Amino acid sequence: METVYLDNAATSFPKPPQVLRQMTRYLEEVGATVNRSVYGPAQAAGMVELRLRQRLCQLFHFTPMTHAVLTPGNTWGLNLVLSGFLRPGDHCVVSSMEHNAVMRPLQSLAKQGVTFTRVPCDAVGRLEPKDVENALQPDTRLVVLSHGSNVSGTVQDAAAVGEICYRHRIPFCLDGAQTAGHIPVDFSALGLSALSVPGHKGLLGPSGMGALLLDPAFAARLTPTISGGTGSASDSEEIPSYMPDRFEPGTPNVPGIYGLEAALQYLEWTGVEAIAAHDRDLTARFLDGVRSIPSVTLVGPDTLEDRVGVVSLDFPGRDNAEVAEALEREFGILTRCGLHCAPSAHKTLGTFPRGTIRFSWGWFSTESDIDRALEAVRSV
After folding, report:
1. What is the set of domains in the chain, with CATH numbers?
2. Does pLDDT of 40 surpass 90?
């Protein structure tokens, strides 16, 4: 039985063919690391890394390129922002829809004297920006927001939150896990101080790669949380003061760099606007189909407005895990069931602790995939 992959919110699949080709080419023909040596293959790898930073800046309308930090993933980037910036006595504002990549570091920091306010969202996971402003305190040092929910697909009004942060001179960090590559994300227009993104979701790259874009003024206030060799300033045992070396210790994931650079080139050719339109079409098709199935409850927005292609369903009176297993076993539909590393979001949406079955599509998903999934939901 042919399977239908609808777990793109976890990681996109399949990847563009050139991602595999470039990673294989690096492993078979190059092999050298970057920023360490000056022989030919090392220089070639360094140029790919440089192009990756350039493509990140172009995609997210960001400068300067030196402040496009390559990370092992989105969780690493968010941890750097939280743990590298907040100090005992500081206050942070988040929404009730945050992922554990934000909440677990914050809970750890709370034991060290950092406080935070969790601004409630409505029943479909939408934040009212004025509630963020009302949550600000004299000791508020940071606002962190999940741009798009990995449970309901709800997209927040980041521009409004950014304007509030700008007026109050409070740094604003955006978690772009579910929006980067799916909808346009403009660093400057959103008033960001930091944008953390994974490489393996909407950006269509490999796992183990991400990026953290840092406003220079914010980066200057950020303390590295990991240190080590950088291949630069090797005469000193102190952490380099310049970017991006200050936040990129250790040997980087060069195969991942090759893969992500190829993925971003593919995104440039395809266009994020085209991907967003494709996602909207598939989302509309799925939502229209779900409305005619009485035994299923849609969790999150019932419209296309301010959402991405992530949809959660609840099967009242049944065990969602058993339903998800049946979707795979009987129909080949691959979904993700559970709490999706976001218990706060599920509490907001009223699905804690049972969780939901999440369907999420991407650029390589088809109308046929959606129709097969809907038929399976009707039958199961």
Report:
1. 4-14+272-379 (3.90.1150.10), 17-270 (3.40.640.10)
2. no
